[in-house]
Design a protein that fits this description.
mainly alpha; two-stranded antiparallel ribbon; 6 helices
Length: 120
């Protein structure tokens, strides 16, 4: 799976949320000032080249849909973050966010409950 730029990732997240979609649908989800139509179309074409999306011709336009599930993308790139920044330790990652106060003790308890329920 090829890495996405920040712009490609933003558009890909929008595709996952609205698929199947047209470029105009993606533009409708973007904040002002919206990028030009041609810019978004170019980013979508990059995603197509990287094999993240496929296009279906409808009349004189194209409808796009994801061929890489969002969960697969998250799993692949979160694993990379943990490997590269946290010595391949999810425990180190959680500890980092807890120390930096990005995650509360209540959040940690909730995560533990979710993990324990998943084991049942």
């Amino acid at each position: 799976m090829e890495r996405l730029t920040a712009q490609e990732e933003d558009v890909m997240l929008r595709i996952w949320q609205t698929e199947p979609c047209f470029v105009k649908d993606l533009l409708a989800t973007m904040d002002e000032p919206k990028p030009p139509y041609t810019t978004v179309a170019s980013v979508v074409n990059n995603l197509k080249r990287k094999k993240y999306v496929k296009a279906r011709r409808i009349g004189n336009t194209y409808q796009y849909y994801a061929i890489i599930p969002e969960s697969d993308y998250k799993r692949t790139f979160m694993s990379g973050v943990v490997t590269n920044y946290f010595a391949n330790s999810y425990k180190e990652m959680v500890s980092f966010f807890a120390k930096d106060q990005k995650i509360s003790s209540d959040d940690l308890k909730e995560i533990i409950d979710m993990i324990e329920k998943g084991k049942e």
